[in-house]
């Protein structure tokens, strides 16, 4: 458990340091992401982005287990 928490913490720090470059990636604006924009109401549901991030995290965790 300690190793996992340390790894998650390091990943959060890496994302924080790399945010200027990561914010330029098209995540959140992929085809399949749902955006409903009405006057006084905005709903954003990033389905495709969530699937992509989930797959990437699963791949990383699978590689770390080996």
Concise overview:
By secondary structure, the chain is an alpha+beta fold. Helix content is 59%, strand content 15%.
Fold and architecture overview:
59% of the residues lie in helices and 15% in strands. The protein has helices at 2-17, 19-22, 47-65; strands at residues 34-38, 41-45. It has a two-stranded antiparallel ribbon with strand order 1-2. A hairpin with a 2-residue loop joins strand 1 (34-38) and strand 2 (41-45). The longest helix has 19 residues, at 47-65.
Please tag this protein with its features.
single chain, 66 residues, alpha+beta, 3 helices, 59% helix, elongated
Give the helix/strand layout.
Layout: H1 2-17, H2 19-22, E1 34-38, E2 41-45, H3 47-65
Antiparallel strand pairs: 1-2
Query: Taking strands numbered 1, 2, ... along the chain, how are they ordered across the largest sheet?
Result: 1-2
Following the backbone from N to C, one meets helices and strands in this order, namely HHEEH
Tell me the number of helical segments per DSSP (H or I, 4 or more residues long). Answer: 3
Number of DSSP strand runs = 2
Judging from the principal axes of the Cα atoms, what is the shape?
A: elongated
| Overall average residue pLDDT | 87
Oligomer: single chain
Largest sheet: 2 strands, antiparallel
Helix content: 55-70%
- Structural domain count: 1
**Which structural class should the secondary elements be placed in?**
alpha+beta
Sheet-strand content, in percent, reads: 15-25%
Measured on Cα atoms, how large is the radius of gyration?
A: 15 Å
Q: What is the distance, rounded to the nearest whole angstrom, between the alpha carbons of the first and last residues?
A: 17 Å
What ranges have pLDDT less than 50 throughout 5 or more consecutive residues?
A: none
